[in-house]
Amino acid sequence: MRTIGPSELILNPDGSIYHINLKPEHIAPLVIFVGDQNRVERVASHFDTIEFTTQKREFKTIIGTLNGKRITVISTGIGPDNIDIVLNEIDALVNIDLKTRTVKKEMTSLQIVRMGTSGSLQAEIPVDSIVLGKYGLGFDGVLHFYDHQGILENDIENAFIKHCNYSDKKARPYIVQNSEVLENKLISDSVFSGITATSGGFYGPQGRILRLSLSDDHLNKKIESFQYNEVRITNFEMETSVIYGLSKLLGHKAISMNAIIANRVNLTFSKDPYAAVDNMIKYTLDRLTS
């Protein structure tokens, strides 16, 4: 049995895992990811009870219960690199024995729900709406550092690359499906669904131009016009694809819910993004715990 070295699985002096400062008892069966550390308390304000809170760097955690269901909510910060840290460390807390530094014989499967903000890529998906990511489309390249055989939607990937004439100088786009179990809990007529695109940056990687020119001025138009079996790319953000990819590799169920606060096609922005986020939080929590 392989023993994981101290440089690979780093623990703090109190036995908590390095970045997120948590111990195994702090991971509930349902884990909610938010980007903004201030959003942790906004989620937890709906809880019936609070049992624990901690923060290290941008990783703030509150654990509580809602309608009898125990929930861990943690801020990941922005970007796929932070998701790589948080998801691997959460998995280690439930599936690695930290004392012996060996992988457990019996695996624990978590439910992981991202509650994020995002920009719509379709004119008819308005600001203040909610989008459920049926697939995560990754431009970030993080998943390619792992053995991801068998989890990718290769036919959709190939169709997308051909449609966009996607440059081979960039990381190959990858596509991973969500958890259908969680989708069935969270989908409704009031929620849009489609492919959520994940970029490694906010400006150039999402087609925004301030002072720097883009390598492909038309990429966003190509992304917007892509369609595969009537499924389109609905929105742009910075976390979903890595959550889907790593969760599927590690045996967890994952889904991404996004409050649309900008529409990139119409160049509009929500007049009250906080209300849009609160509406998404309440909708998601109600359906997860009802």
Physical arrangement of strands within the biggest beta sheet: 7-12-10-8-13
Element-by-element helix/strand order: EHEEEHEEEEHEHEHEEHEEH
Structural class: alpha/beta
CATH superfamily: Nucleoside phosphorylase domain
Please indicate the percent range of residues in DSSP E strands (runs of 2 or more). 25-35%
Task: Name the assembly state.
Answer: single chain
Furnish the topology, listing elements before pairings.
Blueprint: E1 30-34, H1 37-44, E2 49-56, E3 59-66, E4 69-75, H2 80-95, E5 96-97, E6 102-103, E7 111-120, E8 130-138, H3 154-164, E9 174-177, H4 180-186, E10 192-198, H5 219-225, E11 227-228, E12 231-237, H6 240-250, E13 253-263, E14 268-269, H7 273-289
Write a structural description:
The chain is an alpha/beta fold. The protein has a single domain, classed as 3-Layer(aba) Sandwich (Rossmann fold), CATH 3.40.50. Strands 7-12-10-8-13 form a 5-stranded mixed barrel, surrounded by 4 helices. The chain has a two-stranded antiparallel ribbon with strand order 5-6. Helix 2 runs parallel beside helix 6. It is globular, with a radius of gyration of 19 Å. The N and C termini lie far apart (42 Å). The mean pLDDT is 97.
